[in-house]
Amino acid sequence: MRIIAGTLKGRRLRAPDGLSVRPTADRAREALFSVLQKWPRGAFLDLFGGTGAVALEAFSRGYAPVACVEKDPQALACLKANLRGAELAILAQDVMRLGADAFRDQAVIFLDPPYAAWTETWAALAPRLGTWLAPTGVLVFETAAGTAFPPCPDLEPLEVRRYGAAEFHLFRRPG
Hints:
Blueprint: H1 26-36, E1 44-47, H2 53-60, E2 66-69, H3 73-83, E3 88-91, E4 106-111, H4 118-132, E5 133-144, E6 156-163, E7 166-172
Parallel strand pairs: 1-2, 1-4, 2-3, 4-5
Antiparallel strand pairs: 5-7, 6-7
């Protein structure tokens, strides 16, 4: 695993054996950031941060500020080791316990929960995520390929991109 582009291009990232995270593959991250070029840069929020690969890629490509939320102690240790001087905010919290006022004006919100828990994550967070997005922001929810989302009045679906076994579902605030 490595950073694909930007100021940290080529930086190798740790993903220890036995860690209960599934880092977004280099190819999928490269494709994701190609898609994100359509939207303005700004604040980037990585929920379920794991190793920090997506957050570090965002930082490397000029998003700022970048924040990463992760609760697992082993993943947090890996994330902190991967930072090595990058200016990212790390919140050691359970994403599911974040309130509606936890964030504001995020240009990009990226969620990559455990694939088996995506429905509970969507049900719990969807009403809050729209309030966290900037008016022109985009939400990216990574799931296993073939996932269909139930409607949410606070988020409007834009498109779905498939990369191998993963899909990126893009949403925005309605209006």
